[in-house]
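Troubleshooting: if your tokenizer reports a length mismatch, compare against these two reference records.
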Amino acid sequence: MPGPRWSLLPAALTALLTVLFVVLWQALGQQSSALRRLRERVEAIEQREQVNNRQLLEEQMGNLRQRQQALDTQFSDLLQALETEQAAARERERQQAKRQAELNRQPFLLPPQPPAGSGPPSQD
């Protein structure tokens, strides 16, 4: 009697292996699909980060340009003020030299001296 029972075993094992293979095949398909979706999400996040990074860099570059323009304006203003001050200093020096030359051309006059006998009374 052991014969008929054992003759069903290969058929049952074949069916069992077939079901197991189909289940594993479906699980592999689902896993592949899940991995693909995850990969797509990661790529989307990376693209968003790249866009954000690009936007941040563009914003920083704009700020740097504005700062550079402000510094250029300040530098130009300071340079112009310095040139104006130097021109004024040269003009003052020129005026002072001119006054000094005029004083040098005038004869040196001594203040008038009181007469010899009209000095303050002595206290002897």
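Reference record two:
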Amino acid sequence: MKKLFIFFAIALMGAVTWSCSYDDDDLWNAVNDLNGRVEAMEQAVKKANSDIEALRKLVEAVQSNVTITSVNKTENGYTIHFSDGTTATISNGQNGTNAPALSVIKDEDGLYYWALDGVIIEIDGHKVKAEGSDGITPQLRINPDSKEWEMSADGGQSWSSMGVKAEGSDGDSIFSDVQDGDSEVIFTLADGETTIVIPKASTADFAFVYPEELPLGSTGEENYFLFAFGEERTLTFTGDVTAVDLMNAPQGWTADIDLNAKSVKVTAPAFSASYYTEGILSLIAIDTKGQTVLASARICAVDFSDPEATFVLNEGNMTTENGSIIHITAGGHVIDHAYWRMNASELGNVAQDMFISDGKIYIISQNGGNDGILVEADAKTLKNTDKFSKDDLSGLSWPSHVAVVGRTAYIRDNAGIWTLDLDTRTLKAVENTKGALKNRMAVVGDKVFAPASKSILVLENGAVVQTIAMDGTVTGVIKSDEEGFLWVSCSTSPAQIIKLSASDYTLDKHTLTAGGVSSGWGATPGISAKGDVIYFCNNTSTIYRHDFAANTTETLGDVKSNIPNWGIIYNMPAVHPVTGEYYFNTILGYGWSFLTNDISVYNLSAGAPAMVADYQNYTHFPAGIFFTASF
């Protein structure tokens, strides 16, 4: 292992700098400057990990016969576009003399391995592969306390100091040269001898054009085009070609090519029985040299109203990125940055809550910006239908939750609850709501039920019509599947689950015999329910359930051992009201450890939790889990 640490310590001095034309003295000055240190450390870590990941992608492209469709020079380096729709990013840096002898070597078995000074690196007697599912892509970070670079070779489970201070030093990067030729791209590594040669898909540079502007804080997003069912979009392509024809379109899709405009008018199929469909759109062309060239793109259509699908709302990182939406289809397809993909714009900063009503989705953000504090979008397409900016809602102070009745939105903030007329855009404070908890509100009929410490506020027609006293602090209020009722969790000792009538406010209280209903520090209910069975975890990794009809509480089991990177439960888990599967959002920790995270899913039908899915490293501070069927 010692050899590996030496290797990365040397490589690091180049991985965070570059050998082209960008002068990063300012970056390293900022690292040593208290005021700019956080931002500079973030940039350095991002550059280091991006270059390491880029090198591995190049190796895997060679082994998989993947070609390069284009090389785009950017302000900060290069973006490499591959024929399989993926990308790699290479950063610029400063010329220097401390070039690390980092390379890859093709061994006798035909596979590529990481090498230092021409010698394949080994860990505990095993060669370190640079390709394949069992290959290692090291992760780097800067320890916020010691300011030393640290490395993880196990996906972020453990970190070891490399003994290198993040103080900057002139030095070449992993790459010393990139030559973009007509038929191939040649990448020369820092030793000046090792090269990786990847052919270009076409001398005509025939390829679909993907958005260059990624969501703030994001890198390397998967390239594909996302449609609503029945939507028509015009996709453009590049390339010096004299003739173009349609080679393939998925079943039900249509494509109309305009050679002069270098575009394709693509129409997704009308919705039928499936809420998600995808396929490959391929064009065949003749370039100016008479050669046959191909361009392909993955195209997908989705209906976001699927009752068996799942939403995860991301806060985003307050300093570096905005809110976003993850949509997990019933078949397990993960659509990250779904709102951005459908609108080419972003949610506001620190997204907090989501509500679905009358075919619309409402997303509220604490800080606004971009598409505003409140966004209204179509529940099927996720395309925005209205936006409310910070100026529109200037009376609000750190809004956190939203509920909608008809054309009135109820918004909770630090001062209490407000009504917003969605048509006239009139914002009005609701009297006697100061102290409403930072947690979700529930709607039954025309009434809004909001937790407020040891009571529940009932709002109707913009006013408090009832205050329901509880025995302890309310940790959750959710709509029941049974019409006219709600479930309430109360952190008495022992804890209580209460069935609340929305009409006469009667309470049917059950005392739990196991677990508790804490919602932690988060802003989501401490309970969720499927039918008359209520699930909770008491802000731990143990799942409990209470059968209200039988008045029994049982412990189902601890799921922590399933997730190697389990660190913090970030907002409360939830049971899917249709499938009965239980969803946890966990992050490894704060700082940049939040980038190591899991959406883990458990089948509870047999009693003991059985993990059925683990979606890794998609969330960015998850604000909560939402299901269309819950509204």
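Descriptive notes for reference record two:
- Residues 2-199 form one domain.
- The longest helix spans residues 37-63.
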